Amino acid sequence: MSEVIVITSGKGGVGKTTTTANLGVGLAERGKKVVLIDTDTGLRNLDLLLGLENRIMYDLIDVTEGRVAYKKALVRHKKYDTLYLLPTSQVKDKMAVNEEQLITLCNELRKEFDYILIDCPAGIEQGFKTAIAAADRAIVVTMPEISAVRDADKIIGELGRADKEDIELIVNRIRPQMVRNGDMLDMDDIDEILSIKCIGQVPDDELVVTSTNRGEPVITNHNSLAGQAYRNIVGRICGEEIPFMEFLEDGFLVKLRRVFGW
Amino acid sequence: MSEDVMFKGSRVGLQLILNETANFDNIREQLKKKLESALNFFSEGTIIKVAANRLTQEQEAELSLLFKRYGITLQAVDFSRQKEISTKQEEIEIEIPGIRETTIINKTVRGGQEIICNGSVVVQGNVNPGAKIIAGGNIDIQGVCRGIVHAGAFGDSNAFVIADHMMAMQIRIAELIARAPDHIEKTKCTERAFIRDEMIVIEPVHRLGAG
User: Fold this and answer.
1) Quick count: other Cβ atoms within 10 Å of Cβ A55?
2) How far is B141 from chain A (nearest CA, A)?
3) I want to staple A41 with a disulfide (CB 3.0 to 4.6 A). Which of A88, A165, A255, B163 is the partner?
4) Do residues A257 and A246 lie in contact, with contact meaning Cβ atoms separated by under 8 Å?
5) pLDDT per position as a tens digit, A162-178
């Protein structure tokens, strides 16, 4: 049974691409066959986060326009044999792919892969509509900030209109100290407004930035709290019941957790 | 792109307002988009009026057909001669408040979504910030109301809004508008907003059957 999951947010800069890269690596670490499709045509980034830019030969547009078979365009990850990237074009724009083309492509990919993750562009225009068309399941990424939550709300409405009912939430870049001081929305506020199932709470972590720049998703870093949060999300996607971690700043428990990696 | 088409509630009912200078192709395209985005939100059987002098007969027929697909009746009315319309028609207009149907919405109304109804609206869920509910009759929100609500949108100043937690950005009743304070705390009991002495007031109420 393969699944097509779109990762979307409405607002830019909340961590769609970072989330896609990390979930992809996490699923591959568990031995799943995974393909990541970048649909942010013209502003592609997913290849950078995975450190695969220099290996790109063909792109999504070459595939959808029938110039090459999809297998030729797939880029295999250097570390994980079961993780593939289908990059998009950096020169074309969002109009270069349409809904039907992506649905056809995903149906082809379903035969080969366990998980097909689609990295959606920001916004609610054509690029978004194309990206969600093929999805069985949607993950909405947001941040504890009112504009990000407002946009997530809008996106959930749009997904509903496109008959996507299986929608889950990841709250990214949480800063526990600010939440405690009441300077940031807390999970209850976000839950009350968005009222969809939350499958992840990821703390803001400097290691995300350093690992992004190195092209190695933070999920592989066992000293990172964000990495742990992503590993938990992967578990929940696979149907496991994992309790949410508590964010304790520099307490004894956190240090202990870092030592043991849980 | 500027908006060439607009739906507006007025005393005579829902009205379609067209930009005087826009060409018909633009109008048709924008209408299609609007209808698509408001899908399911105009309840079936809704009557929308349009000024008769704005359209040729062919154009009117074409739009009628378009609206029909969404279960909406388009009615060309000559507003300038409204008073001369036979008394029969006016009687019907007066009867409408008594037989207004209630639309029930069983989900969260999210930012950017609009619900427009001739009758009353009951929402079993939250109305989120950025959402808009426009009703000819009353509005009852069995959840948290953070959006914009307009009851009695076609002039009924006896209309009211009830919400379990009334935190609406704006409450509009008939021609009056009340804005939320800049800092609003979550309310603890069900409240009702209505017009008293030309002002919108909010008072706690008890729902029937609730504790």
Assistant:
1) 14
2) 15
3) A88
4) no
5) 999 999 999 999 998 88
N- to C-terminal Cα distance for chain B? 51
Q: Provide ipTM, 2 decimals.
A: 0.78
> For residues B110 and B131, is the Cβ–Cβ distance under 8 A?
yes
* DSSP strand pairing (B13-18 vs B5-10): antiparallel
| Type of residue at B160 | F
Whole-angstrom distance, CA of residue A90 vs CA of residue A38: 11
Rounded to an integer, what distance in angstroms lies between the CA atom of residue A22 and that of residue A231?
8
> Which residues of B19-113 form beta strands (DSSP E)?
47-51, 73-77, 102-105
* Residue B74 · residue B67 · CB < 8 Å: yes
Q: Do residue A154 and residue B110 have CB atoms under 8 angstroms apart? A: yes
Contacts of A192 in chain B (CB under 8 A): 126, 144
Contact (Cβ atoms closer than 8 angstroms) between residue B10 and residue B77:
no
Q: Which residues of B102-127 are buried (b: 16+ CB within 10 A; e: fewer)?
A: ebebeebbbbbbbbbbbbbbbbebbb
Q: Which of A142, A147, A154 to mutate to test the interface with B (most CBs of B within 10 A)?
A: A154
Torsional sign, CA B161, B167, B171, B177: positive
CA nearest to B38 within chain A? A161
Put residue B143 in one of left, alpha, beta given phi > 0 → left and psi -120 to 50 → alpha: left
Residue-wise pLDDT tens digits, B112-129: 899 998 899 999 999 999
User: What DSSP designation does B21 have?
Assistant: T
Question: Which pLDDT belongs to residue A221?
Answer: 93
- Shortest CA gap A157–chain B (Å): 6
The minimum CA-CA distance between B122 and chain A, rounded to whole Å, is 19
pLDDT digits (tens, 9 = 90+) for B64-109: 888 888 777 787 777 655 444 444 443 334 444 444 688 999 999 9
pLDDT digit string (tens) for A42-55? 999 999 999 999 99
Mean pLDDT of all residues belonging to chain B: 81
Rg (Cα) of chain A, in Å, rounded? 18
CA distance A153 to A175: 21
Alpha carbons A15 and A3: distance in angstroms, whole number: 21
Residue whose structure tokens are 């407004």 = A193
For A:156-185, CB contacts with B below 8 A are: 156-158, 160-161
